[in-house]
Amino acid sequence: MRKINHIGIPVTVSVPGEVYNEGMKVFLTDYTQSPNQIEFLRFDADSWMPKLIQQLAHIAYEVDDLDKELKDAKVLLPKTVVNEYLTIAFVEEEGIALELMQFSK
User: Fold this and answer.
1) pLDDT class of 1 with cuts at 50, 70, 90
2) Residue 105 banded pLDDT, cuts 50, 70, 90
3) What DSSP string runs through the chain?
4) What is the CATH number of the domain that holds 38?
5) Number of domains the chain is built from
6) Range of 73's domain?
7) Please, what is the average pLDDT of the chain?
8) pTM of the model
9) How far apart are CA 80 and CA 14, in angstroms?
């Protein structure tokens, strides 16, 4: 079952509180600090992230079984370990990117 975690919105100007993720070549804000669970993302011109993620807002869902969610999915970004507690992936559904987040229990 999917549970909405946050909404990611690409921007082209600096946003207060953004931090740089060198690996993804993106500045982003901490959605847990947003009253509306919004994550703003500002990508470097040479970011390797898929254009769909860079150009359109995405919905992020918490999932129980990331591998099951990725089976037969149109994967934009394969499973990526963020830290010891979180693994993510991006898929395309209905023409937009969805971030799937599996937290360790």
Assistant:
1) confident
2) confident
3) --EEEEEEEE-SS--TT-EEETTTTEEE--GGGSTT-EEEEEE-TT--S-HHHHHS-EEEEE-S-HHHHHTT-EEEEEEEEEETTEEEEEEEETTEEEEEEEE--
4) 3.10.180.10
5) 1
6) 3-103
7) 96
8) 0.93
9) 26
